[in-house]
Amino acid sequence: MARRLVILPFVFGLYACASTASRSPEDATAALDRDMLETGLGDIDSIYITEQNIPELTLVGMQQLSTLDPDLSVEGDSDELKLLLKKTVIETETLADGEDATAKQWGKAAAKILREAREKSPKVTAAGNEKIYEAIFTGIVGKLDGFSRYAGTEAAREDKASRDGFGGIGIRISVEDGEVRITAIMHYTPAERIGLKRDDIILKIDGKSVDGLTQQQVVNELRGEVDSRVTLTLLRDGKDEPFDVSVKRAHVVPETVSYRREGDVAYFRVFSFNSETANSLKREINDAKDEIGKKIKGYILDLRNNPGGYVPQSVATANLFLDEGRIVSIHGRHPDSHQYFEATDGDIASGKPIAVLIDGNSASAAEIVAAALQDNGRAVLIGSNSYGKGTVQNIKPLPNDGEIKLTWARFHAPSGYTLHHLGVLPTICTSGQHDSDALLKELRQGDLPTVPMAKRNAAKPDDTEALDALRQSCPARKNEDPIDLELALKLIDQPNLYANAVDLADPPEDAQVDDAAEALLPFVP
Question: Residues 6 or more apart from 195 whose CB is under 8 A from it?
């Protein structure tokens, strides 16, 4: 790739809570409030995809204090904030620079309002930091777009674990009726190596009973430092007595790829994109080559119900199947958001047919992969119009160890069109179809419609009416239909028909927009 993608979870600075060594708890809380609000508002001001009215966002966020104590309210305008208790003003913060005040100044003013609210409202004090910050920041990001969001300390910890992995043993569990049952064993993990089994019952963790623990509490007990050990007391069918197993924790990244053989075709399901998705897919492809051997006819990449995830992993995944060509370009308001990514030599599938399955739940990173393979003539897309989530979010750390996820750029497919709101149009539409043989017959006779490439590429990013009309050419389907896999298998089995299908989505020769012109496209979420 031409450049390494540094969008998720790219950070522009390090943030830490102020030292509390010489401060009273009250001073430490006030400092954290200030750091939180200055940091969050500053991030929005600097990187959000469109310039925002910081005074308005600050006011909306502080007004959420009334959800914690209905007796409190906050009023304001372009140069001040007022805190009211039972409709009586008890604190006013005026900013001399008004609308020209910096995000940092507004954050500081908001923190002073919050400090007064803590002092005057027992309900706000009792709510605690996490609920207070959740209320304020949920209000703020709620004014931005549907993909920006705030995650508190615990939620951010779980999100990071899903993206980057954690110290653990590699099992999935369920807690029902007070019983902790292992529901899955992840491949290439300590749990698999030591012989844990699905449906094993965990009775104790390090000698402590799991009775009464919630699922999250059990997960927390199972996780720990890499190379540390955890002892499980298990009950297993076929064994009369419980037994202990000592397991050394390792760095575990949740699995996002599964493989199965479909005759002489390798089928891969990609559930989402985390930090190991491309490597996992590469490993599974090599396993498929070993199993099927030279008889392998092609590959199916199932991206249905895939909500996306790490953008760098979508680039790396598409790059597995390409020797050259643009994968994706990304543009926003911040100078660092303008990025272009090109494929490098090394098609792991050696040019063999690829069918990609998509539906109305295929979003974001999944759409990048689908568009890249379609526009480069490397795959036939089968299914329905995808979700149309064509914006990228930058994850910024907050001083409470939470995160704020902000939309900061828009994806563009290799041929130049914006994915946002439109999504990816499949090469062969199966919406409303039930007979794969009938579709193949139409393809053979030249009766299947081509993808409306010219209209798609000419549509303006903010022309929602034109984009909606294009989406209706193959309405998004939310439920999986067996016809997708049936059609993919039959198409791969007939190379000539497969080649005809690829041509249905052949981009116009002048489709790829000039980089300089592309950067001038409007950027709105």
Answer: none
pLDDT tens sequence across 427-461: 999 999 999 999 999 999 999 999 888 888 888 87
Sign of the CA dihedral with 457 first, then 461, 463, and 467 last: positive
3-class secondary-structure state, position 431: coil
| Catalytic residue status for 389 | yes
Active site residue 431: no
Query: Between the CA of residue 424 and those of 240, 489, 491, what are the distances in Å?
Result: 55, 21, 20
Query: For 277-314, how does the pLDDT look when each residue is reduced to its tens digit (9 = 90+)?
Result: 999 999 999 999 999 999 999 999 999 999 998 899 99
> Which position among 314, 362, 364, 384 bears the catalytic label?
364
Catalytic residue among 108, 297, 389, 396: 389
How far is 410 from 386, CA to CA, in rounded Å? Answer: 16
Q: What is the DSSP annotation of 264-318?
A: TEEEEEE--B-TTHHHHHHHHHHHHHHHHGGG--EEEEE-TT---B-HHHHHHHH
148: Cβ contacts below 8 Å, ≥ 6 apart:
48, 141, 393, 404, 405, 406, 407
pLDDT in tens, 109-129: 999 999 999 999 999 999 999
Q: Is 275 a catalytic residue?
A: no
- What is the pLDDT, as a whole number, of residue 160? 82
CB 386 within 8 A of CB 332: no
